[in-house]
Amino acid sequence: MLARALLILCASLAFACGPVATAPDAASSVAACASCHPDHARDHSRSRHANAANGALYRALRDASAVGTRSFCDSCHRPEVGTSDGLSCESCHQAIGNFGTSNARLRWDRSGAVTSARQESVATRAHGTRFHGFLPTADLCGTCHEVEGPGAFRETPFTEWQRSPAAQRGDTCVSCHGSPTPGRASPRPMAPAAVDPIAPSPDRARTDHRFVGPDDDTESAARLLVGSATVSVRREGAEAVVTVTSLVTGHALPTGVRAVRELWLEVTTVDRAGRSTIVSGALDGEQRLAQPPSGAPWIALHDELSPGLPTEATIVRVRALEPTQSVSARFAIAGETALVRARLRYRAQSQSLRLALGLEGPPPEPIDVASVETPW
Ligand code: HEC
Ligand code: HEC
Ligand code: HEC
Ligand code: HEC
Ligand code: HEC
């Protein structure tokens, strides 16, 4: 009774109550959809979306946050009351707008048919469908993928995308992240969107619901990340000038939750006897990426934070590359050198952060986004 009265009050004051208060129980929804949409349900349940509230790093950081902040984390990572692990199908397929493109301010209509990107609506045994212009937009994704705080939890893919070459071409988040080639727009495979034995469905262009990201398994994450940048080495006397250039046209490199990521340049020299020395970007015995003494050359593209956990820290400097932007640094090369190697490496989780939170085991394997070898 009270819950119902609260819901009605919230419906009329939706902005003040926010999305968490208006979302009904959706715990079993994915299972309910799986019988007729087995591919979508399988891809979704393997995605980070379905598991957004059960990552070890996420849970540790949420637990380390002030009690009052935790419901803010939940508003994106577990938006449906009663869903313990993450997003459900309805998190996107009943969203009909927002109160602003950031901080999870989604607006849902729970009463109606599921939303579809196709003009033509279909009546099925389980539900109706209706075209909704919000579903295929970057605004849907951006409402969660644009975070204004607290602390260093600033994420800005949506505003980066708005001023990107991809947006000018008409490519949205789904063009690149719902395609069969993660991070690159490409033609969609055709297959039935539903498997209902009573009413066979025609072929439709299909959206990959894995939405692969850097927190997926190493092989999938590599498909997204490898080739997102180039690295080149130019000799100037006894110095190597190394340049990193972003090839990403949809937003900055890296984007999203840069406060927990690492993207850095490793430079190695190999002498004539085959001995190699890491000149910049080495990991220490505990697998931490150590910043060199101030003034020494290095290239790191994740955010530089003031000390503290990302929930408390402030961003000292955003070092990410805008689309097609480059950054260079000069490294002194020893006389005996025969070969210079440079590679841009990505780690989904900073080991310093993992250790500060008491997480055990090694961090995710680094992925080589781009690399080059030059005889010296
Ligand atoms: C009894 C089978 C059945 C169940 C259960 C079911 N659907 Fe469907 N759904 C269909 C059929 C049939 C279509 C129409 C497919 C077509 O014509 O392309 C459809 C279409 C859709 C579409 C629109 C596809 C388009 O045209 O763009 C969406 C979105 C959708 N379903 C989501 C869901 C969600 C979310 C659930 C769970 C809450 C669900 N469905 C449960 C049978 C089902
Ligand atoms: C032109 C294709 C393209 C478009 C459009 C695009 N992305 Fe990406 N996205 C990529 C590529 C390539 C990567 C991997 C390189 C990187 O991390 O920037 C990526 C990575 C990401 C990541 C992983 C975080 C990271 O950088 O490590 C997130 C999150 C993301 N994109 C969200 C979005 C959102 C949200 C939108 C829409 C506002 C969007 N993307 C639009 C291509 C695209
Ligand atoms: C993160 C948001 C999101 C979630 C979660 C999500 N979908 Fe979708 N879905 C979309 C978008 C966006 C499209 C339409 C893309 C387009 O056509 O531009 C879509 C399209 C579809 C379609 C039409 C056919 C196709 O492949 O394009 C079906 C059916 C569907 N979704 C079912 C589901 C089911 C079932 C679930 C849960 C298991 C689910 N979706 C979860 C965003 C989502
Ligand atoms: C209700 C909020 C919400 C919506 C809407 C949403 N996302 Fe997400 N998305 C998240 C959260 C939270 C994560 C982080 C999951 C985790 O903990 O790894 C995520 C992760 C991702 C990742 C993987 C990044 C990684 O951590 O590996 C991609 C890619 C992505 N989303 C793309 C999209 C696209 C494209 C859309 C729009 C169709 C979209 N998202 C809509 C909340 C949302
Ligand atoms: C407005 C939405 C939103 C809020 C609020 C939010 N996040 Fe996220 N979070 C995201 C999205 C979207 C991603 C995926 C971005 C990416 O992969 O770059 C993400 C990714 C993460 C990741 C990396 C993926 C993983 O699971 O390890 C961590 C850790 C994280 N968030 C922790 C938190 C914590 C702790 C809070 C609360 C203090 C919080 N987030 C609040 C949207 C949000």
What fraction strand?
15-25%
What's the N-to-C terminus distance? 77 Å
Helix content: 25-40%
Name the shape in a single word: globular
**Helix/strand class:** alpha+beta
Count, helices:
13
Number of domains: 2
Give an account of the 3D structure:
With 376 residues, this protein is of the alpha+beta class. The protein is built from 13 helices and 17 strands. Helices cover 26% and strands 23% of the residues. Mean pLDDT is 90; it is low at 1-27. 35% of the residues are buried. The strands form seven sheets. Strands 12-11-16-17 form a four-stranded antiparallel β-sheet. It has two domains: 2-205, no CATH class; 218-375, Immunoglobulins (Immunoglobulin-like, Sandwich), CATH 2.60.40.10. The radius of gyration is 23 Å and the shape is globular. The termini are far apart. The structure holds heme C (5 copies). One heme C (HEC) is lined by residues 30, 33, 37, 40-41, 44, 49, 87, 89, 91-93, 117, 135-136, 174, 178, 193, 204, 206-207, 209.
Tags for this model:
disordered N terminus, three-stranded antiparallel beta sheet, 17 strands, alpha+beta, binds heme C, 13 helices, four-stranded antiparallel beta sheet, 26% helix, Immunoglobulin-like
